[in-house]
Design a protein that fits this description.
239 residues, mainly alpha, 13 helices, globular
């Protein structure tokens, strides 16, 4: 990205860079704000591939799939790369065109993707199958050497989770539980809610102990929990 910005006047490059930093910082937690910053960067430097890509991801994060696809296509024309192919296919899904996404999974561009990109494309293809009501085909789509491997990669948890979810949809609950457990084991970044799905399958229900806490008055507190008179209300900490 820095190399691309060098083609701009220094002050303009700095302004664009600041907006792109904010897009990256806010994308996960505050996507609407990230989208706003991306539009500013786009107005400043629409001929920079990194700006078009960032604008694409910001639009994708807020569900503007048609807009995102346009930005990704523009970035791809500028760079000639294929890295955005899976997310472009997922935009087609978001626009209600799973058949198009599935067709993209069979294009030559997929063979040019790195391993992570090919796993991502497999996830998109499986999602497209499910969109089309082909749940069994989605299960088969996710079966791969990457799924069978015991090695843990950044995409491992998501792949195992997707497989578990697909198994559950076709009624293979015991297998689904095993794969949710495997997803949890590999989910070092907390990218999935595999623990919640496991608890759900096991019939575990969680209740919020403080759910009705605002209705509890001092007179309802356990006497043992109140400080003794004359001790000043101080607490002792046990190490």
């Amino acid at each position: 990205m820095r190399q691309e910005l060098l083609s701009l006047p220094k002050t303009l490059a700095e302004d664009v860079a600041k907006n792109l930093v904010m897009v990256a910082k806010l994308l996960d937690e505050e996507p609407e704000k990230a989208y706003g910053y991306s539009r500013v960067a786009l107005r400043l430097a629409s001929r920079v591939a990194a700006v078009r890509e960032a604008a694409g991801f910001a639009a994708y994060a807020v569900g503007k799939y048609s807009e995102a696809l346009g930005e990704f296509r523009a970035a791809r024309r500028m760079t000639g790369g294929v890295e955005l192919w899976p997310v472009m296919a997922d935009c087609e899904r978001g626009m209600g065109r799973p058949e198009k996404a599935l067709a993209m999974a069979g294009e030559p561009e997929v063979q040019r993707l790195d391993r992570a990109g090919q796993v991502e494309m497999r996830l998109v293809a499986a999602g497209a199958r499910r969109d089309m009501g082909q749940a069994d085909a989605a299960v088969v789509t996710l079966q791969s050497p990457e799924l069978a491997s015991n090695a843990v990669h950044p995409w491992t948890a998501r792949l195992r989770y997707a497989y578990a979810d697909a198994l559950l949809e076709v009624g293979r609950e015991d297998e689904a539980r095993d794969w949710f457990a495997k997803a949890l084991e590999s989910d070092q970044a907390g990218a999935t809610d595999a623990s919640d799905r496991l608890a759900e399958l096991d019939g575990v229900q969680f209740t919020d102990a403080l759910e009705n806490g605002e209705d509890i008055g001092e007179d309802e507190l356990d006497e043992d929990a109140k400080p003794d008179e004359g001790d000043g209300g101080e607490r002792s900490e046990k190490g």
